[in-house]
Amino acid sequence: MNLNFxxxxxxxxxxxxxxxxxxxxxxxxxxxNLNEDQVESAKVIQSSGTSLLTLIDEILxxxx
Length: 64
Description:
Blueprint lengths: L1 H27 L7 H28 L1
Helix pairs in contact: 1-2
């Protein structure tokens, strides 16, 4: 059962890592094409996503 549970948790990490990457790029705003509210929203997404990733990693550690 732990193997299946670990696989499910891993499946959560894959899309979350994509969200974190995109939100980081948006927060950096290298082309300066986003307004302040959009950049701030990207930072909130990144912060929340990082917290969620930490939680997922802790759950994965507990499943081992």
